[in-house]
Amino acid sequence: MTIDGSPIHQATRVAIVGAGPAGLLLGQLLTVAGIDNIVIEQRSADHVLSRIRAGILECVTVDALRRAGVDARLREEGLVHHGIELSFGGVRHRIDFHALIGRDVTVYGQTEVTRDLMHARAAAGAQTIYEADAVSLHDFDGDRPRVRYRKQGVAHEVMCDFIAGCDGFHGVSRASVPDGAKRVFERVYPFGWLGILSETPPVADELIYASHARGFALCSMRSRTRSRYYVQVPSAEKAADWSDARFWDELRRRLDPQAAQSLVTGPSIEKSIAPLRSFVCEPMRFGQLFLAGDAAHIVPPTGAKGLNLAVSDVLYLADGLIAHYLHHDAHELDAYTQKCLHRVWAAERFSWWMTSLLHRFPDADAFAQRIQQAELDYLVHSHAACVSLAENYTGLPR
Length: 398
Ligand code: APR
Ligand code: PHB
Fold this sequence. Notes:
By secondary structure, the chain is of the alpha/beta class. It contains 14 helices and 21 strands. The longest helix has 23 residues, at about 335-360.
């Protein structure tokens, strides 16, 4: 606060709320294009980097990171996967994306993507305000939007042309829009994923998505020496009630005999439960406020789409802002909601479908279970169904 009690003022072109992958990637793409921006994040950088999240990158995402100039480590350390395995009835079936449609995915943790973006932002000298308290958005329905926050008790105000709400599902941006101006679509699933990270070699070269009478399980990885595993648990379950031994036992029971036998176990580095939810907010633009990433939509993690969808929004938004500032063309920004939602709903459908296909639903009767089995059988025996899975998993064209 200044001596007269008014906030300290700053001005920028784009105020970006949230320093997750969406906010940091948007900031980097704008900085590369010479468009001034400030990122305002409520947590510390260390806290942002302590969050463990999925790590499957579509080609579009890898290309976006290259465009932002943050793909060096990803190219060194990322693992290119040509397919996935589906496990049910004690047997594994490989879906070979590369053979089916000539496309792949890259395994590289979201935490590492965020770390690379933070380094690039610091190297470019772009401003990030961490540990910003009481962040609030003002006048985004007019032409002088502002973001206010407090830092160490001092009030600040950032004046800008546009606000990018990249502050995740629980952020302030979407909440700042009056209920009457937005419509939300939501499905909450009656289960969550209990995940652990361990310094153990992955059980297989590629990911295994396992459907089992005891529930879904996923074998993923972060590197050749670090694994990420999940088991479906009821929503009310507490991570504290799961010892490492209990987790490994449960996982083993849901895998095929060969994987169960070769599974290497070890102490967990992290253990947590994530709820599963599908959520979309429409529209994604409110005057000069644009929502991007988890602030606008959530997918259950089964299709590995969360980060990729955030990147897809950010590409549309960055291109729109670049067209606005460099070519005085508003068309791209005007089309933002429509372009994003087309892709969002495709990913929502796929994530919902994969979740429905592989999980045990507490209210599923015998008929529903037979239908699920029939769908799994059809999927692994039909070329057309495999192509559909491959297209969606590796990312639909933009
Ligand atoms: N003010 C400022 N920052 C905030 C506020 C707020 N009021 N509320 C939340 N944030 C910050 C969070 O601390 C977080 O760092 O916004 C950031 C949002 O980041 P993410 O939740 O990672 O969301 P996003 O960048 O959209 O990334 C999408 O993350 O959750 C996964 O599945 C998702 O992989 C996808 C990716
Ligand atoms: C992960 O590695 O955390 C992961 C991978 C694939 C998914 C979800 C999570 O579908």
